[in-house]
Amino acid sequence: MKRQLALALGSAGLLTIALGVPSAQAAPGRSPRGAVLHVGQISSQDVAPQPGSEPDTLVEPDIAVSPVDENVAVAAAHDGRYADGGAVDISYAWTHDGGAHWHHAPLPGITKAAGGTWDRASDPVIAFGPDGSVYISVLDITNACPTGVSVSRSTDGGMTFGPPMLVHTSDSCAYSDDKNDLVIDTQRGSPHFGRLYQFWTPFLEDAQGNGNGSLQVVRWSDDHGKTWSPTVNLTEPGTYTQNSQPMIQPDGTIVDAYYDYGSASGEEPESPAVRGGVRPDATPAAAPPADKVVARVSHDGGATWSGPSTVTTQAGEGPAGVRCCLFSATADPVSGALYANWISPASDAVMLTHSSDGVNWSPATKVVAQANHDYVNSDVAARAGQVYVANSTRDLTDENGRYVQQQVSISADRGNSFADPVELGPLSDLTYAAQSRGAFPGDYTGSALGSRRYYSDWARSSTPPDPTATYHQTIWGATLITP
Predict the structure, then answer these.
(1) What's the rounded Cα separation, in Å, for the pair 167 and 230?
(2) Strands, DSSP E only, in 82-214?
(3) Smallest Cα–Cα separation from 445: which of 160, 78, 164?
(4) How many CB atoms lie within 10 A of CB 369?
(5) What does the pLDDT look like over 425-434, one tens digit per residue?
């Protein structure tokens, strides 16, 4: 493999890098804002594989940093991916020393593999409350039609989690829960300070079993997830949408960005029991697909929503041979600025746009683009005018793009310009990646930005310790210092 790091792994599999010392982690001309504190493996398989699952695969990570103590961060990912949807359980990891050491465990009470009742779990999302409590939102799946969305809470910085609290459940194939996202109002000037907002995408069928839309919906909780509001629909019946990316501004305004496929079906549901009723596996298009992203705004705590405003019509779906690349969006908690980013339709650039109100969005600009390279997954984090965009890049001249390099591009001027990317960790070898209609690092990756620390996590595949094994995909993380 090319460009392996010549640095030894320390305790817990982490590379610790002294600030100001040049290393193989840093791209030439890197910004000092990209100084890497720690990088290494943060999580690996916690549950035994089950029939049909892909052993030794962790997929689709998310990560969040505590607003109370930014040395505390929590990550989560699928553990034991099934190629046809979901995982054996969710694995979570925590650090209390800024990423120097990580610990991981299976999330209890969700799937049968960890004391729960569901067959599979998917789409873990992490969010911290203003009191330092941390929540993991999970999509709950059975091998039949029942699906659900649940939230688990930790009050000890992610070391242990209580039993899952059910946000919504459906026992009908005609209403299949999918793609959840969780955001918490940590703005002290907001009238809804501390409120949990749980978004998700229900896939709908008519009486004949035909696809009849996929909506964006929300419920909220003002008691740490114990009870939840009735469901509010953001989008109209009969329309197809996916991938809520909710953002909260300092006054409590909520902006939710999502894919808008109109009256045509777009993404398929995660549950294998209902997949195909909405949309079969896609046939590769003659030209790279370009998807529309829109945003809606609520000024009353999610009760009512504006009409849609276009964010972009040019969100790509990732390079051939890799399943990946949902767009991401975030709010700068200090300035209230909103950012959305995505991979271009040709997968040859990482794009970014911004807005102050969720209605008017700037023309998209390129964060990073390089000849003979394509890009896999991207995630944006922002705070006090700093913008960090993480992504994976493939050199197509190196064994036809077999290897993937994680990196982050950093802007100190609200996303108007970016320093050269900082490389994070060793290469990922897609030969040993999880598989789901192609190599599968996940549909998304994670990042989080505090006032002095930036965290990023990603799925890394590499040569298995067992030479007879097919897969070896773990979660890696990096901590960078910020001004």
Answers:
(1) 10
(2) 87-95, 103-106, 120-128, 134-141, 147-154, 165-170, 175-184, 196-205, 211-214
(3) 78
(4) 15
(5) 999 999 999 9
What pLDDT, in 10s, does the model give residues 164-211? 999 999 988 899 999 999 999 999 999 999 999 999 999 999 888 888
75 phi, psi to nearest 5 deg: -125, 160
Q: Which residue has the tokens 């998209």?
A: 364
Looking up tokens 């949807």 gives 85
Q: Is 113 helix (H, G, I), strand (E, B) or coil?
A: helix
For 304, the token pair is 């009512």
Please report the sign of the dihedral spanned by the C-alpha atoms of residue 75, residue 391, residue 266, residue 321: negative
Tokens 């594989």 identify what position?
49
The amino acid sitting at 429 is D
Three-class secondary structure of residue 11 per DSSP: helix
Taking the C-alpha atoms of residue 189 and residue 225, their distance in angstroms, rounded to an integer, is: 21
The number of residues in the chain equals 483
**Other CB atoms within 10 Å distance of the CB of residue 360:** 10
The rounded distance, in Å, linking the Cα atoms of 102 and 38 is: 11
β-strand partners of 456: 447, 478
The Cα 341–Cα 312 span in angstroms is: 10
Return the SS3 of 231: coil
Q: Which residue has the tokens 């902006």?
A: 255
CB atoms within 10 A of CB 370: 12
Q: What residues form DSSP beta bridges with 366? A: 351
Residue 94: DSSP 8-state: E
From 363, 370, 312, select the one nearest 342 (Cα to Cα): 312
Give the amino acid at 212.
N
